[in-house]
Every structure is written in structure tokens, then in C-alpha cells.
Amino acid sequence: MNIAATATALSALSVHTEHAVKMNKIVTDQIEAQGEMILSLIPGNPSGVKADPTSAVGQIIDVQV
């Protein structure tokens, strides 16, 4: 493989990596915004509370029959 082809391949890889990082940030920001909107809909929720994506709250559902 010659130097020009290697440089082109590395440049394309860099562009794809930058795009993936930017899309990841956009998706993360959207998830956080949706979490904040959901928290604002809960009655009695104190304002200024941030959603904690690492919390298990809301992910565990106890069903008793």
C-alpha cells in the first residue's frame, strides 16, 4: 500500500470517527432532554432535579398478583 492510499484511508477513518463521536453526543443530549421533560411531568417533583441515567429508579417494576 502506498503512502497516498494510507493517508486517504486514515483520513476517511478519522472522518467516520469524528461523525460517530458527534452523533453519540447528540443522542446523549436528546436522552437527557427527554429525561428532564419526563421529570417535569411528575407531580410533586422539585424543580432543578436532574435525571440520573445510572439510577435503577423506573427500570425495576414490581408486579404483585
Question: What are its keywords?
Answer:
65 residues; mainly alpha; 1 helix; 60% helix; 0% strand; elongated; Motility protein
Brief overview, please?
This is Motility protein. It contains one helix and no strands.
Word description of this protein:
There is one protein chain. By secondary structure, the chain is mainly α. It has a domain at 1-44. 60% of the residues lie in helices and 0% in strands. It contains 1 helix and no strands. The protein has one helix spanning 3-41. The chain is elongated. The mean pLDDT is 77.
* C-alpha end-to-end distance: 67 Å
DSSP, total strands: 0
Please give the oligomerization state of what you see: single chain
**Radius of gyration, whole Å:** 21 Å
Structural class of the helices, strands and pairings?
mainly alpha
Low-confidence region ranges: none
| Relative helix content | 55-70%
Overall pLDDT metric: 77
Q: Roughly what fraction of the amino acids lie in strands? A: under 5%
What is the tally of helical segments?
1
Q: Major beta sheet, specifics?
A: none
Overall morphology: elongated
Helix and strand run: H
Describe the protein's topology.
Layout: H1 3-41
